[in-house]
Specification:
alpha+beta; binds adenosine-5'-diphosphate; elongated; 699 residues; Beta-Lactamase
Length: 699
């Protein structure tokens, strides 16, 4: 790597500033000395001048100059010193500060040539104080000293430098006057020359803020990347490059145009011109955005218009939109049927349309001439006609003004509402009202009639009730009156049959027996009639006592034992293990069971009869069923047999005797006990009568 520098010296062996510059750059690259200055002695002019610098500006470099005659000058003193000298800031330095080094102290290393072994140096190498003068720095000081010494003998350095500086100044004036950043870089993107605009973006000194340095670093990276792409992909094409403004961190968009330049001495370099297109891009984006907004707004307007059209078209009533002069702007299909007509339509239709138009226009002009104000609406009735049928169409027109924000009239929207239906409804309503009034009158008169009838019925009911009471009373009285003599007849007959009047001849005994039997039958009838009348008159009050059905049923069977024996039927009982203690009217329950068992015996000719007792503990309901295998009852007679004096066979020639009062009495008794009697039977298949009563009779 040292060879690299020596080669450079050979190549540019006559050019002192160049060799010095290359040396310092080498030092920066290989020894990390980022800031250095080289001063050389110009013997002819008697001056020590700055000829090259790294990390310092050209202006700063010019500050490093001192006449050799000023032996007290720190730089001249350092030149003559045998070893490197440290120049402290401000004190032993003629320059208040060290331009390019800021306030830091500077180390001045004397550069000596071969021919001046006596100790006089030919130049100075200035680096930041503290840089160790070993290895690379030492070596460079030696070779650079020799090189300076060689070149020094070949002419006036000052003259050359002056020329060079003039050219340089001119060059920088030119490139700095260009507002776009311009720079020359090596192929890797490292800055060789840059105008001040480019420096702002790509160069920063250590004194500058951290943020700015970072931005510059980032810009350098971005630029090198872009440059390498340019070189590889399309060298002559302009490219866009996004950089960061180191002063405020904002994005800057550039267009980069790079050209490769070949220099016989410097090798390949790339000149790049950056054109700031940030504003241009922003403006383009703004235009694009505005254009997009415009398009969105346009499509919104279109959608709105379509929606409006859809609404207008979907309304069944005619809608017409007119402008401020009354000219039609828009109308829906129903309107077109009223206000437009085909050219080939008959003249009557044409005339009708004209007349419709005239009516409508005069209605609208009324609104247009009137005072304008927000939301002003006009209502009115217009007589139009159907152009095709000539049928009159009375319409109600409602017109509203559409005003702009500033209150200017832009349009009038009118809706026409067909009033035929409403008128028809009114007519029907009127008819309905008349009919309703009529009906009301009829209802009133009917109600009055009904009231009269009701009153009549009420009176009749009272009369009937009285009659029924009288009948019951009469029956009760009669029965009572019948019983006394009947008992006397039966008593005497019994006595005669018992032989109180001596033995009776057989034929008289036979007739007396008939008297006795008929008398008893009559007594039964009278007793039953008496029972019914007593129940109805409420003269059979409840006699509640405690008893057990398991005892009552056998008792009934014992009582009817003579009849059972005569019948030759098997009569059995099915008692209930958990039969409760009944709290009810024992006599009434017994009477019902006797009656049901008597009927079963009467209407059964063969087979058997069963009396069953059951109890449902949860509902506390007891049931007594009497089931026989007798003649049975057809379903249509099931209700009838419970009515007073009713029998299935009530013909005069009937086979079975009886009054037809037994079941009627049973029904009344069951209901007095809080229960009821039900029947299951079919003709010829026997019958089951069930008495259902609560274990505790209602009070
Ligand atoms: P009757 O005094 O005529 O028996 P009931 O009121 O006790 O009056 O009975 C009315 C009628 O019901 C009877 O005439 C009979 O036709 C019918 N009937 C009653 N019980 C039975 C039964 N167990 N089998 C068939 N028919 C019956």
């Amino acid at each position: 790597m040292r060879l690299e520098l020596l080669e450079y010296y050979l190549l540019h062996y006559e050019d002192l500033p160049r060799c010095a510059q290359a040396s310092l750059e080498w030092l920066a690259r290989h020894a990390g000395v980022r800031r250095s200055i080289c001063l050389a002695m110009d013997g002819d002019a008697g001056l020590l001048v700055g000829v090259a610098g790294v990390g310092v500006s050209a202006d700063d470099l010019e500050e490093y100059s001192a006449p050799l005659s000023h032996t007290h000058d720190p730089l001249v003193r350092a030149l003559t010193a045998p070893a490197p000298t440290t120049l402290r800031s401000g004190r032993d330095n003629g320059l208040a500060r060290h331009p390019g080094f800021g306030s830091a102290s500077v180390l001045a290393v004397p550069l000596r040539g071969d021919r001046h072994d006596d100790g006089d140096a030919v130049g100075l190498l200035l680096v930041k104080a503290g840089t160790p003068v070993t290895g690379s720095v030492n070596w460079l000081a030696t070779v650079l000293g020799q090189k300076l010494d060689q070149i020094r003998g070949r002419g006036s350095l000052t003259e050359e430098l002056r020329k060079l500086r003039r050219e340089r100044a001119l060059f920088f004036t030119i490139i700095n006057s260009v507002t776009d950043p311009i720079m020359l870089t090596d192929t890797e993107g490292r800055l060789i020359v840059a105008n001040s605009r480019a420096e702002k973006l790509f160069a920063a000194t250590e004194e500058e803020s951290e943020g700015r340095r970072r931005a510059v670093e980032l810009n350098n990276m971005l630029f090198s990347a872009a440059l390498s792409r340019t070189v590889v992909e399309a060298p002559s094409e302009a490219r866009e490059l996004l950089l960061v403004d180191p002063s405020d961190g904002s994005d800057l968009l550039f267009e980069v145009l790079s050209t490769t330049v070949e220099d016989p001495r410097e090798g390949t370099g790339i000149v790049s011109v950056l054109r700031n297109i940030t504003d241009l891009r922003r403006a383009t984006e703004q235009i694009e955005e505005n254009y997009q907004r415009l398009r969105v707004a346009e499509s919104a307007v279109r959608a709105e218009r379509d929606r409006l059209n859809l609404i207008i078209d979907s309304v069944a009533d005619p809608i017409i939109v007119t402008d401020q002069s009354g000219a039609t702007v828009l109308m829906n299909d129903p309107s077109e049927e009223l206000f437009t007509v085909a050219a080939e339509a008959p003249s009557t239709a044409q005339r009708t349309v004209q007349s419709n138009d005239a009516h409508f226009s005069s209605f609208i002009s009324g609104l247009l001439l009137g005072e304008s104000g927000p939301g002003e609406i006009r209502r009115g009735e217009i007589g139009l006609m159907n152009p095709l049928s000539g049928e009159p169409i009375p319409v109600e027109a409602i017109a509203g003004k559409v005003l702009t924000e500033t209150g200017e009239l832009t349009a009038v929207v009118t809706i026409l509402h067909d009033r035929r239906e409403a008128l028809e409804r009114t007519r029907l309503y009127e008819q309905l009202r008349v009919a309703s009034d009529e009906l009301q009158m009829r209802v009133q008169s009917a109600t009055a009639e009904l009231a009269t009838q009701n009153e009549l019925l009420r009176r009749q009911a009272i009369e009937l009730e009285q009659a029924s009471r009288l009948k019951s009373q009469f029956l009760a009285n009669m029965s009572h009156e019948f019983r006394t003599p009947l008992n006397a007849i039966l008593g005497y007959t019994h006595m005669l049959l018992q032989g109180v009047a001596g033995d009776l001849p057989a034929n008289i005994r036979r007739q007396l027996t008939r008297i006795d039997s008929n008398g008893r039958h009559l007594l039964t009838i009278i007793n039953e009639i008496l029972d019914i009348t007593r129940i109805e008159a409420g003269k059979m009050p409840m006699q509640v006592s405690e008893f057990n059905l398991n005892e009552l049923v056998p008792e009934v069977m014992t009582e009817l034992d003579p009849v059972i024996s005569r019948s030759k039927l098997t009569v059995t009982s099915r008692l209930c293990a958990d039969a409760p203690v009944m709290i009810s009217d024992r006599q009434k329950v017994k009477q019902v069971i006797v009656n049901l068992l008597s009927n079963a015996l009467k209407f059964t000719h063969q087979g058997g009869i069963e009396i069953g007792v059951d109890f449902d503990a949860s509902s506390r309901i007891a049931t007594i069923t009497v089931t026989d295998t007798g003649i049975g009852i057809a379903p249509e007679h099931h209700d009838k047999i419970f009515e007073d004096f009713r029998q299935v066979d009530d013909s005069p020639s009937r086979q079975y005797g009886g009054t037809g009062l037994g079941l009627a009495i049973c029904r009344r008794l069951a209901s007095a006990l809080g229960g009821r009697i039900t029947l299951q039977s079919r003709l010829g298949e026997g019958s089951t009568f069930t008495l259902t009563i609560p274990a505790e009779a209602p009070q």
